[in-house]
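Box 3.1 — From sequence to structure: Zinc finger CGNR domain-containing protein
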Amino acid sequence: MSERSPAPGGLELVQSLVNTLNIESGADSLDTAQGRARFGLDEEDVPGARELRESLRVALLAHAGHPPHREVTPLGELLTAGPLLVTVDTGDGSAALAAADEGPLLSRVAAAIAQALVEGTWTRLKACEAADCHWAYYDRSPAGRGRWCSMQVCGARAKMRRYRAK
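Predicted structure (token representation):
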């Protein structure tokens, strides 16, 4: 949906996962072997990945100041199953959070969110305001108040609806 550039660092994984579902068309790339392979998922992993995706979408909607699109398992509850470890570089002594197990998608998402928290970028990852979109995008606007994944599509539609309502 969006012409915006991908989110930085590990947030690109989160953005890609949320954007596996095109709400407007109903197409879900997790239904295909190629779509699942992108995330290292088997067919039996898909229900958990979908649950994680929709919990992430609710968090991204909250980042943009919007209510949940539906009832979901709270993201914090899901992330408890993706334990993190503190790693310390022996060369420079720098510390970082890393997934305890790099394999599962949940662990990789938990590590990406933790790293984004440290970098201060987590709240810049948002979901589009448009109810027929909710596409994830990284808000690079100076004030951090972006509302749509694309001003040319979702933003233009919203402005046209407001204009017609007048």
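Summary of the box: Helices lie at 11-18, 33-37, 46-63, 75-79, 105-119, 151-165.
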